[in-house]
Design a protein that fits this description.
It is built from 16 helices and no strands. It is globular and about 55 Å long. It is mainly α.
């Protein structure tokens, strides 16, 4: 496959997944901001979201002080922010248009319709009227895109590069979500919380699980009250949790093997090593050495993996 074609397919899927994950991160912050808490604590959550997305300097240059309305506008519909939902959906559509002949009609029409529809919704003020419903729509369109891709695309290199982009992006975003929520609340790992704190914790961790479609999964796997360490285990180490780091890296390794070329051996080795560490990791060991440090290192390694994939398979400008 031509490297330029592979590049467009890879980034089309990454941007679609990024839009979904941005919607998930905003949704969990929006839901938890509605819980009883001080205004300072609520703003700290929004500042943490910008920090973990590496967008705080860009936001401050444009808006100054952090407030909920400006953060939502910046992360949803600001076209000058390349990581906003609107920018990601536009980039996904443009990458799809560049390789329209490689895609099935259904895949192209899904990408194109998503872009046309989000423009209509933003113009019509639907996001402001109900942010939660808008975030659900973004997630649904991403689900639809993946389903149409799997249901209509030939199982060849084009599909493998699309899935490679999806799961590399998912690993990155799940790590960021876990980090921002756990790093902001280190006290949750200490015992002795009062009844009111325990009630807050339940809604806080429930919102995080729902943001990754993991609430029912958690109940089925653990059959117990929601505990922070088990939430971390579910989202990092469980191979059967679709959005976990382990599950995402397993897919990255599998698809890397399917598109392997003469120069990709080192890339596959690095991906395999990271996946193996997740496979044999234990959550108590991770928490003992520091969850934030672990996730920071994980993100560095995922970014390094993305750079190697670009070097091995994609056009040089994507590196």
């Amino acid at each position: 496959m031509l490297s330029r074609t592979a590049d467009h397919l890879f980034w089309m899927s990454r941007y679609t997944e990024r839009a979904e994950n941005t919607a998930r991160m905003l949704d969990v912050n929006y839901q938890t901001s509605l819980l009883p808490q001080s205004e300072a604590a609520a703003l700290l959550g929004w500042q943490g979201l910008l920090s973990i997305s590496e967008l705080l300097p860009a936001y401050q240059a444009r808006h100054g002080e952090v407030n909920v309305r400006d953060v939502l506008d910046f992360m949803v519909k600001d076209e000058s922010n390349p990581s906003s939902i609107v920018s990601c959906l536009n980039a996904a559509r443009e990458n799809a248009r560049a390789v329209r002949g490689t895609l099935t009609t259904e895949v192209w029409e899904t990408q194109n319709q998503t872009w046309l529809e989000v423009k209509r919704m933003i113009r019509g003020g639907e996001f402001e009227r109900d942010p939660g419903q808008f975030f659900e729509w973004v997630k649904f369109r991403s689900h639809l895109s993946r389903g149409v891709t799997l249901g209509t695309m030939l199982m060849d290199e084009a599909l493998y590069f699309m899935r490679l982009g999806t799961f590399l992006e998912r690993a990155d975003n799940t790590a960021r979500l876990v980090d921002v929520k756990f790093h902001a609340l280190p006290s949750d790992f200490r015992g002795g919380a009062g009844e009111k704190e325990q009630e807050y914790d339940f809604y806080h961790w429930s919102a995080i699980l729902r943001s990754v479609s993991g609430f029912e999964v958690y109940r089925k796997v653990y059959r117990d009250v929601i505990r922070p360490e088990r939430v971390a285990e579910l989202l990092i180490l469980r191979p059967d949790m679709p959005r976990s780091l382990h599950a995402s890296l397993t897919e990255v390794v599998a698809n890397l093997a399917l598109v392997a070329n003469q120069q990709s051996g080192e890339t596959l080795r690095r991906a395999g090593k990271l996946c193996t560490e997740l496979k044999y990791g234990r959550i108590d060991e991770i928490l003992a050495t520091g969850l934030h440090a672990y996730l920071t290192q994980f993100l560095d390694r995922v970014n390094d993996l993305g750079a190697h994939i670009s070097h091995d398979f994609l056009i040089p400008s994507a590196a």
